[in-house]
Design goal:
With 433 residues, the protein is an alpha/beta fold. 31% of the residues lie in helices and 16% in strands. Strand 2 and strand 3 form a beta hairpin. The longest helix is centred in the middle third of the chain and has 41 residues. It is elongated and about 105 Å long. The relative contact order is 0.05.
């Protein structure tokens, strides 16, 4: 019996713990719901949207939603509570609904650069967790609500560039935690409370500053706000020195960047020549001349289309004049820096350098850079083998442009034919296609 009582007692304790856990979860998940299952934050946000005119439909919120955390311009905490409302520069007009005071978890309100008018709701004073409030560059009128002084967490307050009137509420001076306050360019009147903020701007209020653009010397101002004349001059001198130093620094950075770009360009243009002896010792290339890329570029007039004498699947052929007047044909391979391009180049160089016959066009030289593969042949003006085989009229001087293996074996067969019939002479072009 005693064991059964202990068992029943343990079961009751477990059930009570589960019930309490369920109640805590329900309160956490639905703490913002009314008895009818309506989220208070959804109602407040919908009131705010209905009081505004939204030409771009950025506040496209669903009034039937239970959770507003998926809405645009709304930020929520990890607990699903609305902590931010930000819709700056969205051409919103209308007024700001007092229902904003029901969003008691708000920490950030950004509605600057719109066309919102009317009074600033005094209900903002209920947002005890608010840290940033920016209503600048709108058309708010009336006075600054004194209820803002109860926002003990507020650090950043901008109400500049509106149409606010009346005097600044003295209780605002008690907001010692406030670090930034901008009330400039309104129609506020004196007196000005003594603020202890790090940044306080009140210029552009005609009833306080008169016709001047600043308030220096017009009315008694807090020590923490404005500097005396000597301090002002020193401050201006410091600004000038800072601006001069910044300008020189920027010029130095630009010059450095320009020099770096020139260095990169010069380095990119430097040609890395093909070293036969070091990189391809296994190739028997014979006495080939290695040409600098610039020399071949000058010889072909920068590979001008006027010098083009042949085209093929592996590249174009150009007529060129070397510095000593020698007439050559320069074959410029396509995709010289592509995968396999170097292997193709080595294969062609190896095959051509090994083939020595009076009916075969010998390889005169070559050039290889990071991005270019070029072969240099003596220029032959009798046309191509393809022209002779196809029976077409002899046109301008042509030059090899077909794959190496096919060209080599075609010419080789013709050469063998001539050697077997010594009394006949081959009249085809002494060049390779």
């Amino acid at each position: 019996m005693e064991a059964r009582r202990k068992s029943n007692g343990g079961f009751c304790n477990f059930g009570l713990f589960s019930w309490l856990l369920f109640c805590w979860w329900s309160c956490s998940a639905y703490g913002m719901l009314s008895p009818r299952g309506v989220n208070f934050e959804v109602v407040a946000l919908m009131d705010i949207r209905n009081a505004l005119k939204d030409p771009h439909n950025v506040l496209n919120w669903d009034a039937t939603a239970v959770d507003p955390c998926s809405w645009t311009m709304v930020t929520c905490s990890a607990d699903g509570l609305v902590t931010g409302l930000g819709a700056p520069s969205q051409s919103l007009s209308g007024s700001l609904s007092p229902s904003i005071g029901n969003l008691t978890n708000l920490q950030l309100v950004l509605l600057q650069n719109n066309n919102i008018s009317g009074h600033i709701p005094a209900e903002l004073g209920r947002l005890t967790r608010l840290k940033t409030l920016d209503l600048s560059n709108n058309f708010f009128n009336g006075g600054v609500p004194s209820s803002l002084s109860s926002l003990k967490s507020l650090q950043y307050l901008r109400l500049n560039n509106n149409s606010l009137t009346e005097a600044i509420p003295p209780p605002l001076a008690n907001m010692t935690q406030l670090t930034f306050l901008d009330l400039s360019y309104n129609n506020l009147s004196a007196p000005i409370p003594t603020f202890h903020t790090k940044t306080f701007n009140i210029v552009g209020n005609p009833l306080i500053c008169g016709a001047e653009q600043d308030c220096f010397g017009t009315i008694p101002t807090p020590q923490s706000l404005f500097l005396n004349s000597s301090q002002s001059k020193a401050h201006k001198g410091h600004k000038i020195a800072l601006a001069l130093g910044s300008t020189l620094g920027c010029m130095f950075l630009l010059a450095s960047a320009f020099g770096f770009l020139l260095w990169l360009r010069q380095r990119h243009n430097q040609q890395i020549f093909f070293d036969v002896n070091e990189r391809h010792e296994e190739l028997n290339l014979g006495n080939l001349k290695r040409f600098p890329f610039k020399e071949l570029q000058v010889a072909t007039n920068n590979f001008s289309s006027k010098y083009l004498i042949g085209k093929g699947g592996f590249g174009n052929v150009y007529k060129g004049y070397l510095s000593d007047g020698t007439l050559v044909a320069v074959k410029r391979l396509k995709d010289g820096n592509a995968s396999g391009g170097e292997i193709q180049f080595q294969t062609e160089v190896e095959m051509i350098s090994l083939a020595v016959h009076r009916n075969l066009l010998r390889l005169y030289g070559l050039c290889m850079t990071n991005s270019e593969r070029l072969l240099v042949y003596p220029y032959m003006s009798n046309g191509s083998v393809a022209t002779r085989l196809k029976g077409k009229p002899l046109a301008i001087a042509c030059f090899p442009s077909q794959p190496v293996k096919l060209n080599f074996f075609v010419i080789l067969m013709m050469s063998l034919s001539q050697m077997l019939q010594p009394n006949q002479h081959w009249t085809g072009a002494q060049g390779r296609e």
